[in-house]
Design brief:
alpha/beta; Rossmann fold; Arc Repressor Mutant, subunit A; 2 domains; five-stranded parallel sheet; about 20% strand
Length: about 240
Amino acid sequence: MDLNGAEILIVEDDEVITSTLAYNLSRHGFGVKSATTGVEALRLARKMRPDLILLDVMLPGESGIEVCERIRERDQGVMIVMVTARDAEEDKVRGFEAGADDYVTKPFSMKELVARINANLKRSETGQRGKVLEAGDLQLDTKNYTARVAGEPLDLRLKEFELLAALASAPGELKSRDELAKEVWGHAGVGSSRTIDVHIRRIRAALEERSSYQYIHTARGLGYRFEAKDRAGLGVGPST
């Protein structure tokens, strides 16, 4: 991907903010289109297949959170950066749970925003040059963002997949929540450790539904490590 030619969809109902963002992002070499409502955003997202979406949380009609969830139902690859005046931890957690890749709070500088955009686009590009990770009955194709358990597809959201891949790429290695946040989101400020924990719970639930292995192990107060262990042999039910 040529970052300078990346296509960005701005979803913002404030015309002044939209025009300011469009002007500055165009100056940085990005292709830019805009939408003012969730319905229009979903239509454009399907039509133009943008590389990144700047998505305001407060939209008329459907909220940015709802739009994010609907986009993720169809497209796990597009990078989504939530843009909002809300700075509450709970709002950030909701955004990440909906599938956002990053979160920028108003007011922000264009320098900060462009840096965040470039960082997310680079992570997206890196993900295209992945490899296949295998352990137990789990197979992760990090090039195509697909996961299989016992030969069957495993339905994971983008960040859930990336978090599982980050752990699986270093089996047996203890990774702190900050380390995982930096590796998966590009920085530690993802709201709190709760964001990581919510994603881990969802990953475990998806794995336990189909796998006979326990993969993600908690080191209380420290973080998580990945190791494939037969759950029957361990005599355990849900992962701990």
